[in-house]
User: Fold these one by one.
Assistant:
Number 1:
Amino acid sequence: MEEQTPPERHYNIHTSPEVMAGVYANFANVSHSDYEFTITFARVDHEVEEAEVPGVVVSRVNVSPRLIQELSDALQDNISRWQAREGIRDLPETGDDTPDPPT
């Protein structure tokens, strides 16, 4: 008897405009316990020259170990594609500084 594969699931997630706008973070801290990972996102003032840098937490997300692995894989895939695109964009032959042919 053949094993049936479950149908592909499509997620239909709704959000409010406020949540859709997102928040800005320029700092993240990752910690974990036996049961979950916690990612804390913050906005910090890097221009402060004091030893203690002020910042404000803008979001904290607790996720399961399984989801953190999937998130890590998705981030790595997207970073690789972004780096490839940026690398192609920065090639000398794609820039606007190519000299015009002699006339």
Note: The mean pLDDT is 87.
Number 2:
Amino acid sequence: MENTGIRKLNALADILMHPKAQSVWAWYKNGGDILLFLAYSLLLTIYMGQERIVSRGEPLYWLLTLPAVAAPLPRLRQTVENLIFGCARPIAVMGVTASIWFGSRGDLGVVPPIVLLAWVSAWASRSEVRINVRWLFVIILVFYGLGSLSFVLQPPFEKYSWLMHEYHGDPLGADGSGDIALPPQDREGIDINAWGILPGQTAPAYGPWRISMVPNIATSGIISLFAFLIVLKHLRFRWLNITTVVAAAYFTILSFVRSALIGLVLFSATTVVLTLLPDNARLRVTVAFTMTLGLILIVGLSPFVLYHLQDIPLISRLLLRNQSGLSLEAIYRQAYRPWLWLQHLQIFWQSDYLMGYGSSLAQSATEKLLNANQIRSDSVSLPTRLLATYGLPALGFFYFLGERCYTHAKKNDVWGVSMLSLLIWLMMTWGSIFHPTNAIFVLALLIIGRGGNAFHEDHKQQ
């Protein structure tokens, strides 16, 4: 019996030491685990509706949360090392201090989210990760293919009466009153793609046509923007690269996701300006952050400009959801973000010891932050919401962004600095889709942590 057991152990050891097994393990630890998570997460988005609200405890909640908790475990040592000694230390400090503070006050509801954010961030940004972009492009193209197939096979939106109600302008542009309008979660067809994958296929209830690979158009537009900018960095005259750049550009531009389109302009402008500047890390970081903060300030003042330009068809189509004749207040309500940023900062400033509102922010948001008769979230701005929820400990997240930007600038990684500027912009305007349980957050943290060095194309470069 002992000899049989020894032979089995030796056979297992031979399998594990086989060159192919070693190659698979090297692929996995150098970013294969992140690729698998991206593939799984993108697959789930195909079946999650634009208005789907994930409630704690339901099956979809566990399908999203458990993989995010479990994925870092095979690289436990590397993840913990990143939290203690690596680039994720500021986020670890944020998580620990916030957990101790709110735990001591009996507010345990806000502890798991911040712990999960730190856990996934450290895993995604660890130093050993360097992904072969060919695998990433294959995943993106398969995602597009499955999304297209799902759209073709799903029931026609004409089957669902609520999708056939004609769009009469964005309710965000109206003077809403009354209770918060939340989409009924038991409606048939809530998880279908009502946008379409070709121009003109959008359901009447969703207004002027836009295209999306998945039911959630922000997810489609922003993941496509990431893919587009990554493939541009590694553009080669190969069918995989060319196909990916064309498909990603198509779903980025025709989604008409305003934050993605403005972010593309910001990335391009930042890249051009930084390339013209001398190789000085502090100067480049200062310029990059100035451009990003300048854009945020412009958005804050944009309702005043859009009020006078709203009759221009291109402005109306791209920036006002094809509406015109709006009042200044209506435009301000539609923009929503500038108002929310100010509210979050006021909540932070008014909190006890500047330590945030904790879990009570959710109830406060329902009563104060969400415009009446509007389906909105107070989480569309991730940085300011962290500040309003966790207070001073959230400054660790801001420090993390600044430190990573400076590190990329010192390495002359213009692409990495420009991407970080873009990501700050997207987190300020579509922060609700940057959640530790999804592909967009993981890919963003990989880019923030590793910059352009997160990706390579040829095995010789690894």
Note: DSSP finds 19 helices and two strands in the chain.
